[in-house]
Amino acid sequence: MSEGRWKLWHDAASLDDAAQAWTTLADRLQTTADRLVSESKNIIAEWEGESAQSYQEHRGRVVAELDAAHGIAARVSTGVQFIAASVRIAQGQLDQSWATVSQIPHSGSPSGAVRFEPRNDAETALVTAASDRAIEIRTRLDSELGSDRQTLIDATTQWQAISKTFAPIAQHGADPFKLPADTDSVGVITVGNKTYVNTGAGDDEVTIGEDPFSDGKLLTINGKSYVIPKGQEIIIRTGEGADHVNIPQGTQVNFTVLGGRGNDRIKTGAGNDRVLGGIGDDEIETGDGRDAVLAGIGRDYVDGQGGNDLLSGGAGNDTVYGLGGDDRILGGLGQDYLEGATGNDVIVAGAGNDIVSGGRDNDALYGGAGNDVSYAGAGTDSTYGGTGMDTSYQESGDRAGGDTETTVTVQLSDQARFIQVEGSSEFVARVEADLDMLRASPTGQQMLAEMQRAHDNSGFFGIGKEDLTIKEYPRNDNSFAHDGPLGDNEIRYSPRMDSISDGPPAVVLYHEMAHVYDYMTGNYDRTVYTGEDASDHGDEQGERVAAGLPVDHDHDPKTPERIDPDHRIELTENGMRREMGAPHREHY
């Protein structure tokens, strides 16, 4: 084996994989352009007017940019293939050079400098010639790679130009072309085996149920019902407004729901559903089935439930839970919280300082751009940090990619198994995912251990032990905790709350757990806060303690405020946020 300057320590196989990936992307871009041209012919054939002309211009731009992107991807693939070939050829030449001196006595490590000890002038000449040859090979390789590097730099510039062209649409919700005015009336059209529903502008209520007089479905829009024949695929476009679409669990119909502008709430059933949230802060929950969700632009909450789902948060600070099934989860642009839960999941965080949790089973977690924090969880997992300063909390058998700056080995906690969860099956699965994340978190483990200690040290002959039940709170505006009689502590948890100081729902749960810890230990401070932070005047000090904010710990206004010494920072919301890399909460 070649050593020292004769060994490149390359990974040409990974370059081959990268080249193939770019080739695949080029093919898909070409296929997408061809499909767009083919499938839009029927639209433009009979569409006239200002909107039609605007759409045709937009269509032409999209096709042109797809063709350009195809060419860029093909050039990148070719460039990477050239790099792999150049490296292999150079290594082969270095191996030949090394073979001429490998039998001469030498010392040093394979990856470091090699010191030869020639025994005669002939061996000295061989070492000199081989060393000069190695320098020549490496110099030529540097020149070749410099040319290939410039090809990749040029391709990157061109790719970024295309991205910039469509950024106003993809990231900020600009209309891609002049859209026709939305109608206020409801439209229901059946063509073949598909029924198209347009609910119109406004805040709409849409539900689906069984028609008692036929074997079809009963679609109700704002109180008016429409019978949909059996076997139809239903496409619902809600348009502008804060719309609510509710398809009950178990409904065996394939739906496509287009949310449009507005803060929509969409819940689908057991079919293979497709949901596009559009622009706005949407809540999207799918049921069993192989579902595909693109939440769109805004601060969105997505819950995949059962089935092997494809879930994308899109642009904005999103919260995405895969839950049951082998899911593929994409965070997109923004600071996202992405949870795989059960199943062998693949999670790609995208750009932003993201928080990624694999949950149970064997997961692959990719951080992307930004300072990401990942919790591998149970199973045999792989984590890849991407660019930025990334941290991975994982078990000893997991694999961390070379681009993860900090790897922390953890042993999953088995503490606080006495915690009970009550509510719908969907709620139970959600809370169990949050608790699993805390079991993989060094900070979360401290909370669970303290609760276990308080539980074990409480009660009298098993009566009155400090317990905790987490119950479903149906509204999205709050979560709260209270200390019941004989240690029956309770948290009412709204699992969709993800807008408090840009933190994920899990930190809301952690805040309430901080209250329960104080109830268990008898340290909850009900004193009204009157300190330096005027925005929290009138609130109980216990709320600031749970948040991890300074309080008048000794009830002496003359002494400085500080974190409650009886409630260390790791057992507070801000302690959990600090580990996650989530924004610090400044006020209660």
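[next item in queue]
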Amino acid sequence: MLDSRFLLEGAFDADIGANSAVTYRLDSNDYFTLIVSSKNEESKQVELALRKLLDREDAPEHKLLLTAT
């Protein structure tokens, strides 16, 4: 179903202050997009959202690369 969202477990950095900020990046992908929203100053909610319908006959497998830095 389009716009389906899948909640992902967020990354954690044990540093303090600005060094503890975590950014997320999803490599270019036609089917999914990454939605990152701030829950508060210290934590973010990370979701993978479906933006194009999946068709197993068209693409039986999808590989995603999500990077947290």
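[queue empty]
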